[in-house]
Amino acid sequence: MIPGSSKDHPSFVRSFGYAIEGFITAVRTERNINVMLLVGALTVIAGLVVGLDLTSWCIIAICCGLVIHAELCNTAIEAVVDLATSEMHPLAKRAKDIAAASVYVLSITAAVVGILVFAHALHLI
Ligand SMILES: Nc1ncnc2c1ncn2[C@@H]1O[C@H](COP(=O)(O)OP(=O)(O)OP(=O)(O)O)[C@@H](O)[C@H]1O
Fold first, then answer.
1. Contact, 18 vs 10, CB < 8 A?
2. Alpha-carbon distance 106 to 112, whole Å?
């Protein structure tokens, strides 16, 4: 709920609109999200070429969604930290570095899963 707003809660459609607005802002301002969307698009193209099965598509979709989700959360945490302080502060550094680490942990995991899925589809494993 927006502080000071007279309404209890925005409607579902309006909330969804804010979410889309947030996604567009992240895409416009964060280079990493664009890199992730590009990697996701290339993965989909590679999946079409290789002819992934339904289960593999589901795994790839979950991995892509989780990585983009983590980067969106990281971006939001960075914004909140910047709002909280414009000073250099060890806690600000800790929050930003841990949020960034969460993205890298998920990205590396997704990359390993992607390699396994494609290696299996190509009968390499
Ligand atoms: N207020 C602060 N106090 C201390 N260290 C900070 C502060 N702000 C940023 N840092 C350090 O600088 C790094 C980069 O911060 P910045 O806000 O530029 O993130 P970023 O490079 O845009 O991250 P990303 O690439 O994930 O978008 C942080 O990970 C942190 O180590």
1. yes
2. 10
Per the document, the length of the chain is 125
CB 75 within 8 A of CB 83: no
- Looking at domain 31-121, its CATH class is mainly alpha
pTM, full prediction: 0.88
Domain boundaries, the chain: 31-121
pLDDT tens-digit series, residues 58-77: 999 999 999 999 999 999 99
Ligand 1 mutation pick, 68, 88, 96, 102, max ligand atoms within 8 A of CB: 96
Q: Which residues contact 72 (CB under 8 A, 6 or more apart)?
A: 22, 23, 26, 33
